[in-house]
Prior knowledge:
- The chain is mainly beta.
- 4% of the residues lie in helices and 37% in strands.
- The strands form two sheets. The chain has a five-stranded antiparallel β-sheet. It has a three-stranded antiparallel β-sheet with strand order 5-4-7, with no helix packed on it.
- Strand 4 and strand 5 form a beta hairpin.
- The mean pLDDT is 91.
Amino acid sequence: MSDAVYVGNAGVDAAADRGWLLGHFKPLGDPRHSDDVEIKWGVHPPGDERGEWVKGEERTALLVLISGRFRVELPGRGVLLSEPGDYVVWGKGVDHSWYAEEASTVLTVRWPSVPGYRIG
């Protein structure tokens, strides 16, 4: 197999980096290394919530609901994702938090991939 190809399972691989599958934090030479984008497979039990709001975000983000019922909190607005495929996009500088109303699986894409940010 070529070093430019990686085949895996999101549920299995996500456990290694707190859900993150692709981004600057993967080793150089790994096809999952990217300075342009980060991708996360998030599996959340009911009641799971972000410990504190993300403030001063430097990236744009897309969050897509795969299954469950998931709420994204944005300044002055809550967005409920309740049907598979529901999604929300927020831009640079938009603070956010989240809460899993039911067991939920979400796919998050952030760009660019910014070194120095904690994987989480």
